[in-house]
Structure to design on (162 residues):
């Protein structure tokens, strides 16, 4: 692109921006695209919905597939995790589990990337929330048709039996 083309492009962008401002003034109620957050107008800034409430599970949640990091069944609001403190490990570390009654972090959490088992939690497993997430009562904005592999296998068995 030579200097002249850059200049025309910049000029075109300025004209476009001014045009959008004029459109906004003329049609303040133009409906916005119905994205994940529905309703509202093109030029309106909606306030964010309130934070969803965390869910405390009764008992264990089934994992969707064997390698899934189990979801966190309890609230973790205000739990501090940084270089000095790890609130999760105050209950889930091997030595704490007798007192806390929490399940111990599994053996994979002690392995470094060469699968050497260390004495304590491996650095790559230190920040628990990279993999484990709590659940809330929020309604999912997009549907989900995930089927458990056990159900798929059962369906296939039934089909081949027919
Ligand atoms: C006060 C103690 C305590 C703290 C702190 C705590 N947990 Fe827990 N956690 C438990 C107990 C007890 C359970 C067993 C289920 C239950 O009773 O809710 C559990 C269950 C879990 C499970 C489910 C395990 C499974 O097999 O289904 C995960 C995952 C988990 N916690 C992750 C975390 C993470 C991540 C943090 C930090 C953000 C954390 N926990 C902090 C006590 C604790
Ligand atoms: C890199 C991802 C990752 C990180 C980081 C991680 N986990 Fe896990 N966690 C997993 C996976 C995957 C599983 C299930 C398979 C397994 O045990 O490795 C699991 C399993 C667990 C379980 C269930 C153990 C059992 O025997 O049923 C607990 C409790 C748990 N993690 C707690 C924690 C805590 C506390 C931390 C932070 C100190 C943490 N995890 C960090 C991926 C992770």
């Amino acid at each position: 692109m030579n200097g002249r083309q850059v200049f025309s492009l910049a000029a075109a962008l300025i004209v476009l921006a001014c045009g959008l401002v004029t459109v906004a003034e003329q049609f303040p109620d133009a409906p916005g695209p119905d994205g994940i957050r529905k309703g509202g107008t093109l030029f309106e800034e909606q306030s964010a919905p309130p934070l969803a409430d965390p869910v405390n599970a009764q008992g264990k949640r089934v994992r969707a597939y064997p390698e899934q990091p189990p979801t966190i069944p309890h609230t973790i609001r205000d739990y501090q995790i940084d270089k000095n403190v790890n609130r999760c490990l105050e209950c889930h570390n091997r030595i704490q589990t007798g007192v806390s009654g929490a399940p111990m972090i599994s053996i994979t959490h002690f392995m470094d990337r060469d699968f050497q088992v260390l004495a304590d939690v491996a650095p790559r497993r230190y920040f628990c929330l990279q993999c484990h997430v709590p659940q809330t009562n929020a309604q999912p904005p997009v549907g989900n048709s995930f089927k458990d592999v056990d159900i798929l296998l059962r369906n296939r068995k039934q089909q081949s039996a027919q």
